[in-house]
Q: What sequence folds into this?
């Protein structure tokens, strides 16, 4: 009989448990349909991925990317699901207004290494596809165990046959004076770090502020502090205990970690810091510590621990101690029809605050509730953690200190390098390990720890690669249900299933299974398993080498066929080169740039292939207005130019006038429809501050005025900009010329930087960067004249334009190709293409037209019509 | 039913915004010649969808590059859906509504 299953809490445990239950129901149904069922038991293990149960893989693979064939599948599932044969009709309630996302990736989201789209585990389509009714943004207030009803905050009552409580935890707020505001929960500027909304709020607020304080020096606090550095310039971490991560690390490891966090990341750490008060009237201005110290801050993040959400359970009469008490089948004590899973569950006295235990709990729960294994029992989990902070490796598992005199302790410590490794062995088995500063052995240690595997006699092999036989087990020796990715709960069997199903690339397997997408520790193991399952070598992910995602070809091949078929417009490329002729919005801009580079003035310019910035020659801002940056060659201007800019700013009421890092003036907040008139009034050429193109040449004062100057940097900068202005490419090209090695114009960190040195000579550096990524450029060569600088600059830029991937900046391109190889080609002409490069760049230079001249007549109808309700739009008369 | 004017007001492969009553609607002219109409304001951070790039299936918001299906309004990345409006071309005129 079909049963009504209600789940309270649509988080990581709730959604995962439902996935496990669905997998078992499907297995059952299939087995019944298959004559003889091939003896496959509905164990629901991820082995199900081995091609016999394709559904499970599809469910997981598809949750992210609604592809073709979906609606057919949806139909099939709807009719098959809950069809009166022991299946469930599932209803889920979630307090948060979203489908289930990967909470642990909030750290990556804050740090800017993952975007929101990348953290969703189950999008709304997944619920629909599986016939699940999701009430997102709906809180359950009470359970009536007798009538078997749950009551939501909106007053509705929903009946259940079986109930799962997966309410997780909330961030705990320490009792600090003034931390709350009666009207808005937290004081303005104070944030918790638990939900997507918390993270969004934090990012939004931090963007406009400068100094952050994080309260709490555990895993979460450290990840928050690191993430905040992405948004503010100063971050201080306050920890109430004597060393960081005191739950997982001993004092020595904690001290080492503090040194690294301070010296490498530049986060200030204050230990033994009891925060007593939040300062500031309407908004936060700082915090006060017990010893009277005041630390100024305008953003405060509280990461001082979590408390399980047990109120609903307690109010409804379930047994609650620290968490909701469960038996080994994950049922609330004394209840036949109520299960509990995840952080809110208390099992054999233990509470867990990590995801790995909940994968195990979800399996047991699903085995039991579906009846596929009535004897399934959860016996507790072994814990290991890893800090998800780039550049600071910390992994910890089991004991942090020996407990008995018989415990064998092996320690390696190299404080200067911030390296600390400790393992604790009891009766020949690994019972604890700590790694700080080097995680390379983490995966092997976790395996040995989880499975109690025998350890090598030479204990040092556990800590270092000694060059002998590998201590780790080979993929072939691992059982199918061995967990490979603990962050996302993916087994070896699941990975092999996807490989058997035809996906033979590491990145493809990672996308489908999500293995390796959390903390990343397991990536090497995932790679080894994919290689093993693929019978030797994993295939290179072909898509990784494509120039744009929508056309299946790497750049050289793509350029060759474009030439062969003389494809001069973006739509002709899709029509001719994509099987099925499918156009792809996200590939258009890259193709437009490539075709323009290849065909110069023969390029057929389809305006829709351009990004909005290139359609209206201005940079779109967050409110849909644009910014206008006139050209100012070499950062040199005149009173007349300045006066004109000032007049224009006045006339159009420009909300913000700002000096840019590229030594120009930016007029921000300009509505699209005003752009042409402003350009006309300015009567200056475009500064190309919006395109993937040659941007600026930053210069220092140079030899004319500067008492240190040895070369005329300003004149050379102006000449370079004059020549290569507007040159488009796969990425931005920012240049600088500096008149002496003091490097005032920051030439070492530019895509191409020129430095004057003694004797009238110039050094040329390429591949530098000083944005989100910082890299000192590599010395390409040193030349004797400004003319040579100009020529080699053009040649290098052309080589980059022809060979870099779309959006690949020189700081990736140069190390990828190798500076020696680039020097051979560009300086020594080893390949004999220098002349061709020079000619090609010359052609591009000749094709230059100032786009701001495109203003008298719009290039397309409504080119400058507003797209936002900023001003009154053409009102359409309403007819009946 | 509302006449939004000539379809040629929208260049092939681009979108334009129309104010219809109190609604802001972005209408797109696909390269196949078909048209699609969706809500004009991106549900993520209010980006102007008509300024986004499209293909025959999706529109990509110009601010953060999230994509929505033009036929169903569904997000491809866990964002809330956008509204979809019926729209067609009749005798060179854009007709909104059924
Ligand atoms: C920033 C961050 C980083 C982390 N990093 C890691 C890591 O690297 N490794 C690791 O193992 N773990 C990590 N964790 C911990 C991990 O995310 C949690 O252990 C996991 O999410 C617990 O899952 P859960 O389903 O029990 O709780 P949750 O995922 O919190 O889900 C509970 C859901 O129930 C909802 N809910 C609560 N009460 C009600 C109600 N009455 N009615 C309706 N809905 C309700 C909540 O809104 C929530 O959506 C991290 C956590 C955070 C916040
Ligand atoms: S274990 Fe962290 S990503 Fe796999």
A:
């Amino acid at each position: 009989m079909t049963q009504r299953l209600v789940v309270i809490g649509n988080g990581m445990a709730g959604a995962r448990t439902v996935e496990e239950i669905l997998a078992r129901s499907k297995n059952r149904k299939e087995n019944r349909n298959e004559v003889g069922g091939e003896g496959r038991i509905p164990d629901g293990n991820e082995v199900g991925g081995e091609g016999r149960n394709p559904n499970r893989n599809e469910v997981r693979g598809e949750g992210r990317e609604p592809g073709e064939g979906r609606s057919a599948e949806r139909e099939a599932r709807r009719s098959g699901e809950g069809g009166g044969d022991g299946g469930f009709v599932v209803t889920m309630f979630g307090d948060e207004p979203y489908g289930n996302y990967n909470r642990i990736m909030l750290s990556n989201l804050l740090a800017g290494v993952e975007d929101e789209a990348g953290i969703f585990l189950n999008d709304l389509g997944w619920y629909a596809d599986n016939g699940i009714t999701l009430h997102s943004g709906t809180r359950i207030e009470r359970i009536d165990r007798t009538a078997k009803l749950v009551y939501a905050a909106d007053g509705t009552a929903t009946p259940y046959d079986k109930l799962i409580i997966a309410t997780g935890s909330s961030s705990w707020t320490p009792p600090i004076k003034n931390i709350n505001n009666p009207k808005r929960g937290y004081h303005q500027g104070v944030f918790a770090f638990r939900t997507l909304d918390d993270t969004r709020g934090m990012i939004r607020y931090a963007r406009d502020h400068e100094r952050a304080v994080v309260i709490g020096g555990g895993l979460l606090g450290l990840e928050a502090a690191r993430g905040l550095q992405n948004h503010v310039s100063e971050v201080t971490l306050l920890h109430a205990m004597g060393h960081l991560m005191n739950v997982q690390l001993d004092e020595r490891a904690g001290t080492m970690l503090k040194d690294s966090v301070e010296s490498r990341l530049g986060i200030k750490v204050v230990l033994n810091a009891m925060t007593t008060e939040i300062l500031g009237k309407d908004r936060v201005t700082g915090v006060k510590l017990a010893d009277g110290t005041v630390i100024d801050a305008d953003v405060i993040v509280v990461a001082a621990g979590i408390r399980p959400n047990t109120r609903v359970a307690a109010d409804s009469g379930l047994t609650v101690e620290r968490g909701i008490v469960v038996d080994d089948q994950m049922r609330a004590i004394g209840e036949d029809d109520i299960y509990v899973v995840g952080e809110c569950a208390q099992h054999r006295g233990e509470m867990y605050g990590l995801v790995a235990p909940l994968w195990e709990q979800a399996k047991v729960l699903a085995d039991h509730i579906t009846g596929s294994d009535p004897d399934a029992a959860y016996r507790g989990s072994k814990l290991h953690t890893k800090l998800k902070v780039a550049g600071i490796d910390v992994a910890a598992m089991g004991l942090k200190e020996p407990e008995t005199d018989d415990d064998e302790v092996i320690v390696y410590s190299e404080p200067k390098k911030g390296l600390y490794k400790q393992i604790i062995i009891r009766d020949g088995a690994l019972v604890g390990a700590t790694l700080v500063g080097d995680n390379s052995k983490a995966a092997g240690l976790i395996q040995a720890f989880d499975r109690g595997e025998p350890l090598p006699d030479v204990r040092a092999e556990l800590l270092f690669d000694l060059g002998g036989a590998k201590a780790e087990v080979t993929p072939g020796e691992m059982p199918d249900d061995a967990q490979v990715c603990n962050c996302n709960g993916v087994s070896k069997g699941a990975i092999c299933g996807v490989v058997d199903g035809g996906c033979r690339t590491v990145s493809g397997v990672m996308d489908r299974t999500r293995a390796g997408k959390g903390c990343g520790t397991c990536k090497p193991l995932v790679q080894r398993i994919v290689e093993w399952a693929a019978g030797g070598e994993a295939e290179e992910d072909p898509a990784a080498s494509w120039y744009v995602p929508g056309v299946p070809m790497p750049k050289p091949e793509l350029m060759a066929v474009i030439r062969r078929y003389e494809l001069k417009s973006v739509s002709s490329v899709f029509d001719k080169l994509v099987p099925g002729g499918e156009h792809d919005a996200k590939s258009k801009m890259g193709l437009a740039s490539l075709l323009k580079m290849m065909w110069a003035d023969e390029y057929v310019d389809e305006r829709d292939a351009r990004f909005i910035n290139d359609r209206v020659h201005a940079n779109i801002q967050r409110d849909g207005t644009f910014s206008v940056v006139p050209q100012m060659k070499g950062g040199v201007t005149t009173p007349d130019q300045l006066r004109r800019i000032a007049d224009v700013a006045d006339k159009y009421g420009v909300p913000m006038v700002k000096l840019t890092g590229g030594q120009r003036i930016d007029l921000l907040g300009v509505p699209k429809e005003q752009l042409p008139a402003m350009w006309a009034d300015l009567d200056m050429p475009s500064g190309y501050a919006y395109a993937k193109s040659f941007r600026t040449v930053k210069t220092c004062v140079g030899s004319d005025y500067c008492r240190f100057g040895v070369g005329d940097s300003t004149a050379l900068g102006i000449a370079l900009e004059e020549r290569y202005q507007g040159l488009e490419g796969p990425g931005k090209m920012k240049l600088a010329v500096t008149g002496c090695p003091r490097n005032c114009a920051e030439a070492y960190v530019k895509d191409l930087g020129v430095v004057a040195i003694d004797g009238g000579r110039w050094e040329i550096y390429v591949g530098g960067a000083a944005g989100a990524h910082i890299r000192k450029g590599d010395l390409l060569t040193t030349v004797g004249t400004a003319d040579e600088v100009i020529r080699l600059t053009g040649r290098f830029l052309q080589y980059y334009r022809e060979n870099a991937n779309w959006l690949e900046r020189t700081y990736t391109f140069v190390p990828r190709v190798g500076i020696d190889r680039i020097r051979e080609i560009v300086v020594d002409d080893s390949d004999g293409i220098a002349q061709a490069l020079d000619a090609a760049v010359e052609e591009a230079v000749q094709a230059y037209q100032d786009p701001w001249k495109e203003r008298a007549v719009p290039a397309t109808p409504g080119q400058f019509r507003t797209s936002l309700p900023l001003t009154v739009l053409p009102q359409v008369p309403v007819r009946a | 039913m509302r006449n939004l004017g000539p379809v040629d007001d929208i260049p092939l492969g681009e979108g334009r915004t129309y104010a219809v009553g109190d609604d802001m609607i972005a209408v797109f002219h696909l390269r196949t010649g078909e048209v699609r109409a969706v809500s004009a304001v991106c549900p993520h951070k209010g980006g102007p969808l008509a300024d986004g790039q499209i293909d025959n299936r999706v529109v990509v918001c110009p601010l953060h590059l999230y994509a929505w299906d033009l036929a169903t309004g569904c997000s491809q990345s866990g964002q809330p859906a956008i509204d979809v409006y019926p729209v067609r071309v009749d005798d060179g005129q854009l007709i909104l509504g059924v």
The longest strand of chain B covers residues 23-29.
